[in-house]
Write a structure and sequence with these properties.
Rossmann fold; five-stranded mixed beta sheet; 7 helices; about 10% strand; EC 5.4.2.12; isomerase
């Protein structure tokens, strides 16, 4: 790796608060932003920043990730760069339903990273697009600390791929908490 990465899950969102799956651009781009709890999480995180200062910031264009990224960008004087490949994993026909649907999808994920049950975006496709972001940044930049603001499932899938583990094992990782940061790359 030529860069250091800070992989950040968005703060607690209105969808989290309501227990809903919001994974489509039609719903996620303009609605279901941060909850008051998410705003408070970001305030605390930024007040007690414990990571290297980011030099570049890319984010999913969903409202909850854009709002999260905007708070960090303002703190460090960074430009926002929307990157659609960092979007939430699409959960197909489970879109808009209750978040207990995640467990059904993850059970299929554990058997087959290429499955499309319920019309979901396959784990393998998520890993591919997320890794493409890293690959492109590695080709264009060196020596930077790059903050990527995305969503829980895509970030867990990315970390599993970067570690070289089987994609069927992505849910074996401890779930990434809202407003959490996971460093990756150069020490």
């Amino acid at each position: 790796m030529h860069n250091r990465y800070l992989l950040m899950r968005h703060g607690h969102s209105q969808a989290n608060a309501r227990g809903l799956i919001i994974s489509s651009p039609e719903r996620g781009l303009d609605d279901f932003g941060l909850s008051p709890r998410g705003e408070a999480q970001l305030e605390g995180l930024l007040a007690d920043w414990a990571w290297p200062t980011p030099t570049r910031l890319l984010h999913s264009d969903f409202l909850r990730t854009t709002q999260t990224a905007a708070r960090v960008a303002a703190r460090f004087g960074l430009a926002l760069e929307a990157e659609t490949r960092l979007r939430e994993r699409h959960f197909g026909e489970l879109e808009g339903g209750t978040d207990d649907g995640y467990a059904r999808v993850w059970a299929h994920d554990a058997r087959d990273p290429a499955h499309g049950e319920y019309g979901v975006e396959p784990v393998a496709a998520v890993a591919r697009r997320m890794c493409e972001v890293i690959d492109a940044l590695e080709r264009r930049h060196a020596g930077e600390t790059i903050l990527l603001v995305s969503h829980g499932d895509p970030l867990q899938i990315l970390l599993t791929a970067l570690e070289g583990r089987a994609l069927t094992r992505h849910r074996e990782r401890e779930p990434l908490a809202p407003a959490s940061i996971t460093p990756w790359g150069q020490p």
